[in-house]
Amino acid sequence: MTKVKLVCALAWRENFAKCNNSVTDTKRRMPSVRDKRVSPHTIRHTTATHLLQAGVDINTIRAWLGHVSVETTNIYAEVNLEMKAKALLNCEMKAKKSKKHWRDDKNLMAFLDSL
User: Fold this and answer.
1) Using an 8 Å Cβ cutoff, are 43 and 25 in contact?
2) For position 21, what pLDDT does the model report?
3) Quick one: DSSP state of residue 68?
4) Average pLDDT over residues 21-33
5) DSSP label at 99?
6) Cα 110 to chain center, whole Å?
7) Could you tell me the pLDDT band of residue 77, with boundaries at 50, 70 and 90?
8) 94 has pLDDT over 70
9) Is the pLDDT of residue 109 over 60?
10) Nearest C-alpha neighbor of 77 from the set 97, 57, 101
11) Helices (H), 1-115
């Protein structure tokens, strides 16, 4: 995480001017950012999302951002498509394949014959 993100995300209320100066300085040094809408709030939002992607607990992110309610933090910490895909992979059930065919199971065949 960059120094700019840390300053903006963790010290929002106390150092708004410092954070704003960091954004201005970054825009001056990085031409790719110059024409984009980057504000202290944008960096805060991005940082919260990156922390969530890194596996940091949402309640910890809430504390770092200084929110009273985790509901407020949920606004910042949006789930992206990559995170959704990982969640689906975690839920995937892999069927165990039986090595032998059901017809080769003598006990099953005997049971079926008794019917």
Assistant:
1) no
2) 76
3) S
4) 80
5) S
6) 54
7) low
8) yes
9) yes
10) 57
11) 3-10, 16-29, 31-34, 40-53, 58-65, 70-76, 81-91, 106-114
Contacts 24+ apart (CB under 8 A), 86-92: none
Distance between CA atoms of 30 and 6, rounded to whole angstroms?
A: 18
Through-space distance between the first and last CA atoms of the chain, rounded to whole angstroms: 68
Q: Distance between CA atoms of 38 and 32, rounded to whole angstroms?
A: 11
- Residues 72, 58: Cα–Cα separation, whole Å: 11
Q: Is 105 left (phi over 0), alpha (psi -120 to 50) or beta?
A: beta
Distance of CA 41 to the CA centre of its chain: 18
Structure token pair of residue 12: 């929002």
Place of tokens 């825009």: 27
Say how far apart CA 83 and CA 48 lie, in whole Å. Answer: 14
Asked whether the beta carbons of 112 and 100 are under 8 A apart, the reply is: no
